[in-house]
C-alpha cells in the first residue's frame, strides 16, 4: 500500500529523529540492510513518480568510493530531494583513559602507538571514517576495531575493552559518566552538551557529522522534486520535532534540493579521500 506523499514525508522526518542513526535506509515499504546498497538500487529501479523514496544517511556517498562493483552510480541514478537532519558525533573515551582533553589524548596516543584501540560500527562506515580522518589529521596510530553496530562498540568502550570511539546518540552515556566526551566533531558546540568543545579547536579544519536525507529516482520530474522538498521542509518546521531532535543532540537541516546535492558531493569527495588514503576496503 502506498501512503499519501505528505503522510510519508512526515513519517520519514519523524523516523529520522530516532536515535539509531547508522545504516538507516527506507526503500518502498520497509527498511533493507546491506550498507544501504540494496535499498538504493531498489529506488534506482523504481518508477520516478515521487512515491518511492530513499531516506538514508551518508552511506551512499561513502559507497561510491568504498564499493567498486555496484549496479548503479549514486550521483547519476538518484535525485536529491532534501537533507532532513544533522547529527554531531562525539569523540568519547573510556573514563580510565588518562586524557581529559583532545591534546592530552593525542599525546597519550603518540606515546602508546598501536596500543590504543578505536571502536566503530563497521569497516568503512561513517564512524570509522571519522576516526580515520582524526588519525590522518593528527598523526596518531590507533588500532581500528570494527563491530556489527554502534551499540556493541559503545558497550565495549564503556567496559574498557576499547579506549576511544567517534559516535552519535551517546548523550545519556556522557551525562551519566559512562564515557568521557573529549570533543564534538562539528564546528559549533552541541546545544545539549555545550561544555564539550569542538574538535576543530584543537585540530583545525576537522568536521564530521551524521545526517539523513531524502532522495528519489533520477528521472523524477522537477515539479515533483520541488513539491517533495517543500513537504519535507514543512514537516521539519514542526516545533515538536525540533524539540525532540534537540533532546537527542541533533538539529533539523532542510534547505533546497540543490543544497542537499552539494552536501552529498562534498561528503563523497571528503570521505573518498579518507578511504583511499587509509586503503579501506568494503567488508
Gap between N and C termini:
35 Å
Based on the structure, what is the oligomeric state of the protein chains? single chain
Strand content: 15-25%
The strand line-up of the biggest sheet is 2-1-3-10-4-11
> How many beta-strand runs?
11
Number of helices: 11
Spatial extent as radius of gyration: 19 Å
Largest sheet: 6 strands, antiparallel
* Residue-averaged pLDDT: 86
- Approximate shape: globular
The H-and-E topology, N to C, reads as HEEHEHHEEHEHEHEHEEHHEH
Kindly state the percentage of residues in helix: 40-55%
- Stretches where pLDDT falls below 50 for ≥5 residues? 14-33
Structural class: alpha+beta
Structure description:
There is one protein chain. With about 280 residues, the chain is α+β, with helices and mostly antiparallel strands. It is built from eleven helices and eleven strands. The chain has a six-stranded antiparallel β-sheet with strand order 2-1-3-10-4-11, sandwiched between helices. Strands 7-6-8-5-9 form a five-stranded mixed β-sheet. Helix 6 (about 125-140) links the parallel strand 6 (about 115-120) and strand 7 (about 145). The chain is globular. The model is unreliable at about 15-35 (pLDDT under 50).
Amino acid at each position: 500500500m502506498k501512503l499519501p506523499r505528505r503522510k510519508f514525508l512526515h513519517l520519514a522526518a519523524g523516523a529520522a529523529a530516532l536515535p539509531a542513526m547508522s545504516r538507516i535506509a527506507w526503500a518502498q515499504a520497509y527498511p533493507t540492510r546491506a550498507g544501504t546498497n540494496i535499498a538504493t538500487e531498489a529506488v534506482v529501479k523504481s518508477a520516478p513518480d515521487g512515491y518511492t523514496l530513499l531516506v538514508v544517511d551518508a552511506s551512499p556517498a561513502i559507497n561510491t568510493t568504498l564499493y567498486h562493483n555496484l549496479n548503479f552510480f549514486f550521483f547519476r541514478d538518484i535525485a536529491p530531494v532534501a537533507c532532513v537532519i544533522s547529527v554531531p558525533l562525539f569523540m568519547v573515551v573510556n573514563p580510565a583513559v588518562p586524557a581529559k582533553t583532545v591534546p592530552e589524548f593525542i599525546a597519550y596516543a603518540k606515546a602508546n602507538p598501536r596500543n590504543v584501540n578505536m571502536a566503530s560500527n563497521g569497516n568503512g562506515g561513517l564512524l570509522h571514517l571519522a576516526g580515520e580522518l582524526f588519525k590522518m589529521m593528527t598523526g596518531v596510530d590507533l588500532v581500528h576495531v570494527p563491530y556489527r553496530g554502534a551499540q556493541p562498540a559503545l558497550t565495549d568502550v564503556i567496559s574498557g575493552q576499547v579506549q576511544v570511539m567517534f559516535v552519535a546518540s551517546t548523550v545519556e552515556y556522557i551525562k551519566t559518566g559512562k564515557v568521557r566526551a573529549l570533543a564534538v566533531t562539528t564546528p559549533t558546540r552541541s546545544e545539549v552538551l555545550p561544555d564539550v568543545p569542538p574538535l576543530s579547536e584543537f585540530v583545525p579544519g576537522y568536521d564530521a557529522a551524521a545526517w539523513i536525507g531524502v532522495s528519489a529516482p533520477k528521472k523524477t520530474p522537477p515539479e515533483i522534486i520541488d513539491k517533495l522538498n517543500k513537504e519535507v521542509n514543512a514537516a521539519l518546521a514542526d516545533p515538536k520535532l525540533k524539540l525532540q531532535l534537540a533532546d537527542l543532540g541533533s538539529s533539523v537541516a532542510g534547505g533546497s534540493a540543490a543544497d542537499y546535492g552539494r552536501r552529498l558531493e562534498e561528503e563523497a569527495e571528503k570521505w573518498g579521500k579518507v578511504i583511499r588514503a587509509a586503503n579501506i576496503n568494503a567488508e
